[in-house]
Design brief:
The chain is of the alpha/beta class. About 40% of the residues lie in helices and about 15% in strands.
């Protein structure tokens, strides 16, 4: 309870720019011993985690909300790649629905998702800026992102669009 939890949920892979998060965390932890890094997801075999990071593995769907809601900030890390340009991270939407502060790599999709919160975006592969932004966001507490579409309303919007072109 006396720690600030920085989380990452997703594939732990160099293709996602995870080393940028690790470098930012290591520097932040030197200045702030009250932070801990919590990682969930599948981990590539060649990835070396920071010494004091906590990897909880791949969680079942029903355990993810508890993890996300325990975080003080969720980091969504990606690189400027084909995947990074077109990925719309579900964990980003989930954290926002729970009013959890997020910091995300500024890819086209996350720029669109966080268009009303550009201060939560960091250029990919910039560990110094990521560290600074995480530290700033840790002081905010919960964030009201405004209305977030749920699955039902998203399905209805898609259905209306499909019907329009039927």
């Amino acid at each position: 309870l006396d720690k600030k939890l920085i989380g990452y949920c997703g594939r732990i892979s160099s293709s996602r720019g995870i080393q940028t998060l690790f470098d930012a965390y290591v520097e932040l932890a030197k200045q702030r011993p009250d932070v801990e890094l919590i990682l969930s997801g599948r981990k590539d075999k060649n990835i070396k985690l920071p010494t004091d990071a906590h990897w909880v593995g791949y969680l079942p769907d029903e355990a993810v909300p508890r993890l996300v809601n325990s975080l003080d900030v969720l980091v969504v890390s990606n690189r400027p790649s084909k995947f990074g340009r077109f990925s719309h991270p579900v964990k980003l939407y989930e954290a926002m629905a729970c009013n959890i502060p997020v910091v995300a790599s500024a890819t086209p999709s996350t720029r669109w998702i966080l268009r009303d919160h550009p201060d939560l975006l960091v250029e990919p592969e910039d560990p110094s800026k990521l560290r600074e932004t995480i530290e700033r966001v840790l002081t905010k507490g919960r964030i009201d992102y405004g209305h977030q579409a749920d699955w039902q309303s998203s399905c209805e919007t898609l259905e209306q669009a499909l019907e329009k072109y039927r």
